[in-house]
Design brief:
This protein is an all-alpha fold and 220 residues long. Helices cover 56% and strands 0% of the residues. α6 runs antiparallel to α7 and α6 packs across α8. The chain starts with 7 loop residues before the first helix and ends in an 11-residue tail after the last helix.
């Protein structure tokens, strides 16, 4: 690479030591390892350009080379056609990976928090596996871009205490706009859905037909 002063063979050897990217399950650990390595070689501007580096000066051949190196760390199951479209630009490839494998927003933060709350050492074969999983989920929560506040903790509590017959609300919340995800609005939706489920008309209908609870249109 003409714009960088380092041993390419050494870099390629170091990349082979990084565990293969399998997808969202290990994306953050892979991402942190890659960033650390790129920072060590002082080439992180090829994946995360900032105001201190004029990334427009990076040659196309260098970006293409970096894209190829990044893809060499993918497992075989990550065979998406879009990778081939991004062969020539490591920055765009890096952004595509982040968009594809890193959940963002309040709902992602809530689900990570619930997962952390429910994790127990006895659910894992050994303490190392437990600590590794806990670290991964904590990293995922940090990368959602949402800070833990009393509001978020209240929302986590609402979701955790949701009865099974109202689980369909999770499907609505996971696609809701960020401004719709507040503790007050979520609690209001739960109360309305519960009242509908336990209304005499709905109980009678379920008793006659033995069907699952219907979603009330007013909850949309």
């Amino acid at each position: 690479m003409s714009d960088f002063d380092f041993d390419t063979e050494e870099l390629e050897a170091d990349l082979k030591r990084i565990p293969k990217l399998r997808g969202s399950e290990n994306y953050l650990l892979w991402r942190h390892s890659m960033i650390s390595l790129f920072e060590y070689y002082q080439i992180d501007a090829c994946i995360q350009p900032d105001e201190f580096f004029d990334h427009e000066e990076v040659k196309d051949e260098d970006l293409s080379y970096m894209s190829t190196l990044i893809q060499s760390t993918f497992s075989r199951k990550l065979d998406f056609w879009v990778w081939y479209e991004l062969d020539n630009d490591s920055r765009k490839l890096w952004q595509e990976l982040d968009d594809r494998f890193q959940p963002k927003g309040k709902w992602a933060c809530i689900m990570c928090s619930i997962q952390l709350n429910r994790m127990r050492p006895e659910h894992f074969a050994d303490d190392n596996l437990y600590c590794s999983k806990e670290r991964l989920v904590a990293l995922q929560r940090n990368e959602t871009g949402v800070k833990m506040t009393w509001e978020i903790e209240n929302m986590v509590g609402i979701v955790e205490s949701l009865p099974d017959y109202l689980n369909y609300l999770k499907l609505q919340w996971c696609v809701a706009e960020e401004d719709e995800l507040t503790a007050a609005k979520m609690q209001e939706k739960v109360l309305r859905a519960d009242a509908f489920y336990n209304s005499p008309e709905e109980k009678e209908l379920r008793a006659k037909s033995c069907i699952l609870p219907r979603e009330n249109g007013i909850l949309e």
